[in-house]
Amino acid sequence: MNSARTRWLAAALTALALCFAHPAMAREAAPAAQNPALEKRTQDLSEKLRCLVCQNQTIAESTAGLAVDLKNEIREKLASGQSESQIIDYMVARYGDFVLYKPPFKTMTALLWLGPLILLVVGLAWLFRVLARRRKEVTPPELTRVEHERAKALLEGTESQ
Amino acid sequence: MKRVLITAVIFAGLVGLLAYGLTLNPREVPSPLIGKLAPEFELPQLYEPQKSFSKKDMAGKVWLLNVWASWCVACREEHSELLALSKSGEVPLYGLNYKDERPDAISWLKQGGDPYLLSVQDYDGRLGIDYGVYGVPETFLIDKHGVIRYKQIGPLTGEALKKTILPMVAELNRE
Fold first, then answer.
1. B129 and A96: CB-CB below 8 Å?
2. What is the mean pLDDT of residues A96-125?
3. What residues of chain B have any CB closer than 8 angstroms to a CB in chain A?
4. Could you please report the per-residue DSSP string of chain A?
5. N or C: which end of chain A has fewer CB within 10 A?
6. pLDDT higher than 60, residue A19
7. What is the pLDDT of residue A159?
8. What is residue A26's predicted lDDT score, i.e. its pLDDT?
């Protein structure tokens, strides 16, 4: 009896502790930045820039040393009042168009942008050609009048065996 | 028969394209700084931090700026090439110690040999950003007017030195 009560008490205390632990943990997960608006702008801009160390990630996603440095650089520049396009120009001047997660449309990148469209058009053209050819093959020849009447009779069940 | 032929041609084309792609290095991002003035800097020297070294000190000379760090594994690969180059004296070699602790950097140079006429410290990596550094080691060839003429991304190989860098140095020195 006594031990059961102790167990109950322990469970209740644990539950109580969890109740208190929860908000504390939530507070820890909140952004540490003092200026959430600035942090949001830094984050948004970081998502447009490619990390050069881990090339399939944006600077926002990456934890590579350089990505962290660049994020700090962006934060400082935003805080000092520079515009987004000024910062993007700054990055492109140093790392080239490659740093842009969305590459600009240029003669160099025309194939990159138009390639999928060209493939789609070629694919559709080929599909329609094949379909048109198949329709011609599949279309049954017209029945003669005699065949027509026989088919009708068959359907109506009046055809004698 | 015709259809088989067309399929074979397309397939061969695709394989050719992919095979060519395999020979390229996707980590090598061409620098937009080639042909542009190298960013100015004035940074503390590694051995004597109270003294500084600036890009202006190299005006009128063709020189190499090698970005290195004691934590950089790939730097060890090029180290023997750098030592040989410095011994030959064919082109002045300066080091940019990138995001490194001073004692670590000095002890690495003591241990592996110091190929640099002088190294400067870029402790927070700010100058590295200005030079578009993203993968240490990197080496910049800078001409008499302070213009970046070539950038080697990754370890300096004997081949790159012999075929590209040293001929360029010879040519730039004649200017």
1. no
2. 90
3. 26-27, 29-33, 99, 124-125, 128-135
4. -HHHHHHHHHHHHHHHHHHHHHHHHHHHHS---S-HHHHHHHHHHHTTBB-SSSTTSBTTT--SHHHHHHHHHHHHHHHTT--HHHHHHHHHHHH-GGGBSSPPP-TTTHHHHHHHHHHHHHHHHHHHHHHHHHHHHHSPPPPPHHHHHHHHHHHHT----
5. C
6. no
7. 62
8. 44
